Amino acid sequence: MNILQTEISNWLTELGMNAEGRRIVANYPFPENMYNEYKTLFWNDIETCYENLLALEHAEFYILSFYARVAYEYLYKDGKDMDIVKKGFYAEGCRDIVLWAEDCKRRHGYYGIADEHHWFLGKILDTTVVRIGRLEFERYCLEQTVQRENREWKKGCEVINVHIPAGEPLNYEVCTEAYRKAEQFFGKKDPVFVCESWLLSPVLKELLPEDSNIIRFQQDYMVYEILWEDRQAEERIFGGELLDDPGEYPGDTTLQKKAKERLLQGKKIPGARGIRIKE
Fold first, then answer.
1. pLDDT > 70: what percent of the chain?
2. CB under 8 Å to 46, separation ≥6 — which residues?
């Protein structure tokens, strides 16, 4: 490996990537001219960049290698003039490189960035999405009018979209602190947060104890739409590919057992959209 590859490998080690994942990054480098071309596209024409990356043979490996280098260079070279707060948040977001590489390993048996997830990781690395503590946030315009009690938010209203990365417990106090910091970061007084996730599914109240982290998290939100065809809950609860026969899902944890029983009864575990406002 050259000096840059060694620096990136050491940095990925600090982020928690294991040797197998780092080996993929080292074994699939871009030729320098090609890397510079794709890097320019990444910062100026992200959709074309995505198209070109996905057209590559062994795209999952090349995307992992490319994203690792782009992120490292932005953090330590290209974005060296970032203020210390933004740099800290960007460094936190880079941890998602490891999370999505490990997710690819669980789903497909190898380290990489899967086709279906590269776009979201790209949004983190191009700073569209910002990781602040336990949660991730981005500016967002409502795609539909939302009403809560005597309040209404019109379609097109700017809000803050919340994403929940995998990995750590969803500690309620830690999440509350993330909302507070996001309010400061985005410069919004009394901001409105929205979230689309399986974690907001009303069904989870039947599967989890009232004092669980997930139930406490979802209690801050008013659900305004249930996504009955969404099967993200199955992916997250069982940690693998979606199966047509729920009987083949594992039942190692209490949640898995209860979720599996519900699915075997022909019932769904839908996702949901919710809105959170500062009371």
1. 99
2. 122, 126
